[in-house]
Amino acid sequence: MNELVNVINGWVWSPALIALCLGAGLYFSIRSRFLQLRHVREMTRLMMDGKSSDQGVSSFQALTMTLAGRVGTGNIAGVATAITFGGPGAVFWMWAVAFLGASSAFVESTLGQVYKESIDKQFRGGPAFYIEKGLGIKWYAVLFALVTIVATGVLLPGVQANSIAESLKTAAGVDTTVTGAILAIALAFIIFGGVKRIASFAEYVVPFMALGYIVVACIIVALHIDQLPNVLSLIFTSAFGFDAAFGAIIGMAIQWGVKRGVYSNEAGQGTGPHASSAAEVSHPAKQGLVQGFSVYVDTLFVCSATAFMLLITGQYNVQAPDGSPMFTGVQGVAAGPGYVQTALENIMPGFGSLFVAIALLFFAFTTIVAYYYIAETNIAYLNRATKRGWLTFVLKLCMIATTFYGAIKTADAAWALGDLGVGLMAWLNIAAILLLRNVAFKCLRDYEAQKAQGKDPVFDPVALGIANADYWVTRNAAAQPGAQAGTAPARTTGR
């Protein structure tokens, strides 16, 4: 089974997908005049802008829901894996993916807002919605929805659960079956509580977990600050093949840096627009900018924290493509959660291993919760015409089961299946947002024009010539003088 999955992964994660991820991000960056640099201040301001409503969540809640999906085991075990197989230079390519991916995240999240719908009094949106309503290709939208349900409901939760279970076993000797059972019970409590409970959970847990992890990383870097220039030099020289030791694996540095970068920050993958579409905002570009910043938080802050903790202390390993060791800083441990735990335990005896286990518990569990919301949104998309409420119930049971099973199966199988799910979603979504790019950039220009006039931007799709943005048309009509007060926008399907 593992061999078959690895063969399929070789096709999905071919150099073509790597080039597509980087190329799309570069194109969007140039087309938007590098909005990820020009609008950094606006991104941070908008994070706290807006309030939740009966139908939607606040911008900050949507951000934390997205970060719950972005910040997971990829930020710890994924970074260690990238360094092991790609060398220190892989870190640079993770940064490159994040910088360019911020523009991709803007495009996809803005499109999610443009074509969102109100279904059962909750905002829903994502690639399936904008593929159907923006491109008019129903079968393509259904295909994405099905792939995403399988990926986030079956394949990806196992990676997160496995990392939690293995890290707790290493740190405290907790049996993986016990961990799996506890995770399954906790997940059931949250997902049976609905979207509002998910948003509230993410709003409080995500900032706490990310800030705590970054603070510890900064302390470790500060204690070894004299090594920081050497580490930065090693990252950049290895990334471009100039380092004597790691220059020969520049291709692996790019491949693993991009693969783990996309897996971690999810820019262009199509997961981010689901949560961002749930936000209550007056203009799609607002949440698009907020989601662009979420990529920075994930990779430039959290992933970098892991990378610097390992590199600045020399607690990392690098393998050549044939498996032979090129550098060994951590003896007898394979790449994964245990690798990072051993490294930090060597740095902080008696604390390092447990710290990583606790960080992974928060990081990975919130990601599993986010995966449920993504899968549920795609079921809601499929259920618009025919109500099949039992599908959501089956999804809940499936997520609980796969989380438990993922906690006890091998890490290699979990990572391979997770990579496959991410790759398939990325192929489908990046092609769609490239085709729909003009809609997102119309929104950006309109937002910037209204801001220049001193206005709080309000979206009018009709004035911009954007068709099938039915929710916004209904909303604007209800806001016109003479409209009945308190009228809520009706559920629309775009058909």
From TrEMBL:
InterPro entries per UniProt: Na/Ala_symport
Pfam families membership: Na_Ala_symp
Subcellular location: Cell inner membrane; Cell membrane
Membrane topology: Multi-pass membrane protein
Residues that span the membrane, as ranges: 12-30, 139-159, 171-192, 204-225, 231-254, 295-316, 354-374, 390-408, 414-436
Keyword field: Cell inner membrane, Cell membrane, Membrane, Symport, Transmembrane, Transmembrane helix, Transport
Family according to the record: Belongs to the alanine or glycine:cation symporter (AGCS) (TC 2.A.25) family.
PANTHER family found in the cross-reference section: AGSS FAMILY TRANSPORTER, SODIUM-ALANINE, SODIUM_PROTON-DEPENDENT ALANINE CARRIER PROTEIN YRBD-RELATED
Entry protein name: Alanine:cation symporter family protein
